[in-house]
Amino acid sequence: MQLFFASSALEDLNRIYAFVKVTYPKAVKLAAKRLYYGFNSLKKYPELGYPLFHLGKNFREFLVPFGKGNYIIRYRVLKKKLFVLHLWHNKENRLRHF
Q1: How far apart are CA 53 and CA 47, in angstroms?
Q2: Fewest 10 Å CB contacts: which of 21, 40, 77, 93?
Q3: Distance between CA 2 and CA 50 in Å, rounded?
Q4: What is the distance between the alpha carbons of residues 65 and 82, in angstroms, rounded to a whole number?
């Protein structure tokens, strides 16, 4: 399974990194490890996430535990390609980012 990041997902990664670096500098490596683990898990098992039928076929979300919540990876699988569309921490105000 090939993994691709939409520009929106790369922006999300940059936003998350900037926040964690300033707010919890000792947790930057742990956050990166958790997200890396989540992406690799999805590459191996793309059906791990739960389906988002309201968005259409093949849209899913996968939770990656971190801190007092989870990072949420929204993605879509098309053939042998997994597209990461967005990611955020569930404690974030999502309306500011979508």
Answers
A1: 14
A2: 93
A3: 19
A4: 20
